[in-house]
Every structure is written in C-alpha cells, then in structure tokens.
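haha ok so turns out i had the wrong file open the whole time. this is the CORRECT one, sorry everyone. sequence first:
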Amino acid sequence: MAAPKSSGKFDTTGAVITGIQFAGDVASQIFNFQAVQAETERANAIAQIDYWTTWQVQNEENYRNYELQLNQWYRQSDYVERMRQYESKLAEQRSVYKGEVSTSATNNFARQLAELEGRFYEDEAKDLIDLENTRLQSVASAAKVSAGGQVGRTAMALQNSKNQQYLSNLSNRQITRNYRIADKLRAAEVADIQRQNLISQVSDYTPQPIQDPIQPLAPLAVKGFEPTPAYGPSGSALAMNITKTGYDAVKQYQSMLPPKPGTEEETKIGQRYLRQVLGVN
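then structure:
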C-alpha cells in the first residue's frame, strides 16, 4: 500500500538562505586558510633570505679578514728575511774585522819578538867584547911584566890573578846571560798575552734569532643550520571545519522548516535533497 502524500512543501527560501550562508562560511574559511598559508610561506621565505644573506655576509667578512692577515704576513715575512740578511752581514763584518785585528796583533807580536831577539844578541855581543877586552888586557899586562924583567913568582901571581878575574867575568857573564834569557822569555810571554787580549776584545757577533711569522689559514666555509620552516594551516582541519559548517547548515535549515511538516517520507526526501546540494552525506 502506497504512503499518503504530504500536504507540506519543500522550503525553497530556507534552503537558499542556508546555502548562501554555508557558501559564505566556506569561502571565509578557505580565504583564511589561504591567507594563513601565504603568510607562512612568506615568513619561511624571509627566514631563508635572512639566513643565506647572513651566511654570505659572514663568509665575505671572513675572506676580507683573511686577505688582510695574508698581506700582513707577506710584509712580516719580507721584514724577517731582510733582518736575517742584515744580521748575517753584521756577523760577516765582525768576522772580517776580528781577522784584521788578529793579523795586526800577530804582526806586532812578531815585531816585539824580533826587537827582543835583537836586544838580546846586542847585549850578548857587548858582553863578549867586554870579556875579550878584559882577556886582552890581562895578556897585555902579563907581557908588560915580563918585559919589565919581573919573572918568577911575581909574574906568575899576576898571571894567576888575571886568569881568576877572567874566569870570574866569564862566570858572571853566564849568570847575566841566563837572566837575560829569562827576561827575554818573560817579555815574550807578556807580549803574547797582550796579543791574545787584544784579539779577544773583539768578540764574534751572534746573529739575533728572528721568529718566522705565523701564516694565516684560509677560512672555512661558515656552517650553520637553516631555519626550520614553519608549518602552515592543516588541510585536514579545513576539511573538518567545512564538514562541520555543512552539518550546522543542515541543522539550521531543519530549524527553519514549518512547525507542521509533511509526511515523514517527504521530510526525508527534502533532507536528502539538501544534503545532495550541499555535498554532505
């Protein structure tokens, strides 16, 4: 048996009002979603730009500082090399000067030795001449005695006296000669000490140690962490909100129906039609 037809009609005006309100709410939600999503993308882009700009600026600054340090290192290295050459030249000049002083002192020492030897042999020759003159005087005296007719013991005593004097002079000469040799050796030692002192007064020059400058190292690339992108609005949340808005629209439409609706079957047909229009199951 067929169900009786309802006398009520489908509320077209309420459906239109509810549909317009639903469409407006959905459009507003989609617009807000897109606006928040665009703002998130803009903020992420700005964060990336700031990060890479800072990274580039820091790298450029590091390389500028490296170039300044490298130029300074080149200047310091050149200065160190020139100072080492200067110190080496000073050592060479001091060595040459010390050699000249040593040569001069040695030549002066040789001259002093020659003078000592000359004075020694001059004194030796003088003593020999004096001794020989004494011997000749003794012989001459003995000859005079013999020529004067003095013979015997007197002549012999005179001769012995002269011989004793000659031997005494000869002994004294030997003692004097030994002292003279000792004086000559002591004078030679003093002259040699003076020579050594004169040479030692000129010391060797020791070049001053100069430390090499430290070469700067090339800067490493700046390492950092890129900014974590912020998450935008959730699409699932948007879909749920739209679904909820549609459900609220259905309920609102139902509340706008007349107090005495048609048959139950007609009411279900109207609700099913509205859900089809709104895309709500």
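The chain has four helices and no strands.
again sry for the mixup
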